[in-house]
Amino acid sequence: MTASKESLELTLSRSQIFAKADTSLLAELVQHARPVRLQPQQHLFLAGDEARHFYWIETGTITLYSPSLTGEEKIFRVLGSGTLLAETVMYAQPSLYPLSAQATEDSVVYRMPREELLALTRQSAEFAFSLVEILASRITQAVNRIDLLTMSNSLQRLVSYLLDMHVQQGTAWLRLPASHQVIARQLNITPETFSRHLTQLKRRGLIGHCRNRELVLLDTKGLCHEAGLPVPSFEFLQRRPLANLNGSMFECCNLL
């Protein structure tokens, strides 16, 4: 087994979805993994393609998006190295990718066949039951995000996103997972409005150090008041099921 495949097997064994999989069955799955090298803007798959493989990102970043009738791309999520991609859609019938996946930089991913994953599921009841638990939690994530994107204004969506990152990263010094433009599109905010909100929050002394993908939350209660949101109990948020699954209300496309 190559070093990359050893790393892949270790990563899968530590992931939420494969933590309870039999080690011998997991090793068999990894034996079928094949590397795929992507250049910037190259597609891994398109929405509507038959879903024959799921993937593990070794290096680089992959953007999940859906084209709209207006020609604009709706970005759902940006995935980085060490991340699984499209594992749950393997169980759909018909099995079709609901989103397109495109490399944003030079990337290397490992593809693994759908049939091998289904075989692992059939042979391990414990793995299958664990999978059901995870999918149920991801449905909750999806409901939370739909509620957020349809019921709040753009400033509330931005502040909710920053607070969610605060909980996930465990610090007020945030490292954003993507560029401002990508996050704006993910939150259904125009880049201009996104930039204007950040400037407004910085001028009011609520955030600081808005450089590249880093910023610091200076006053979380003030952020909530500015956006007209109730002040959350961060102790409760850190105990919620989504946090226990390393999840986020903004990651509903984990269902992919």
Automatic annotation (TrEMBL):
<dbReference type="InterPro" id="IPR050397">
    <property type="entry name" value="Env_Response_Regulators"/>
</dbReference>
<keyword id="KW-0238">DNA-binding</keyword>
<dbReference type="Pfam" id="PF00027">
    <property type="entry name" value="cNMP_binding"/>
</dbReference>
<keyword id="KW-0804">Transcription</keyword>
<dbReference type="InterPro" id="IPR036390">
    <property type="entry name" value="WH_DNA-bd_sf"/>
</dbReference>
<dbReference type="InterPro" id="IPR014710">
    <property type="entry name" value="RmlC-like_jellyroll"/>
</dbReference>
<protein>
    <recommendedName>
        <fullName>Crp/Fnr family transcriptional regulator</fullName>
    </recommendedName>
</protein>
<dbReference type="GO" id="GO:0003677">
    <property type="term" value="F:DNA binding"/>
</dbReference>
<dbReference type="GO" id="GO:0003700">
    <property type="term" value="F:DNA-binding transcription factor activity"/>
</dbReference>
<dbReference type="InterPro" id="IPR012318">
    <property type="entry name" value="HTH_CRP"/>
</dbReference>
<dbReference type="Pfam" id="PF13545">
    <property type="entry name" value="HTH_Crp_2"/>
</dbReference>
<feature type="domain" description="Cyclic nucleotide-binding">
    <location>
        <begin position="17"/>
        <end position="138"/>
    </location>
</feature>
<dbReference type="GO" id="GO:0005829">
    <property type="term" value="C:cytosol"/>
</dbReference>
<feature type="domain" description="HTH crp-type">
    <location>
        <begin position="152"/>
        <end position="221"/>
    </location>
</feature>
<dbReference type="InterPro" id="IPR036388">
    <property type="entry name" value="WH-like_DNA-bd_sf"/>
</dbReference>
<dbReference type="InterPro" id="IPR018490">
    <property type="entry name" value="cNMP-bd_dom_sf"/>
</dbReference>
<dbReference type="InterPro" id="IPR000595">
    <property type="entry name" value="cNMP-bd_dom"/>
</dbReference>
<keyword id="KW-0805">Transcription regulation</keyword>
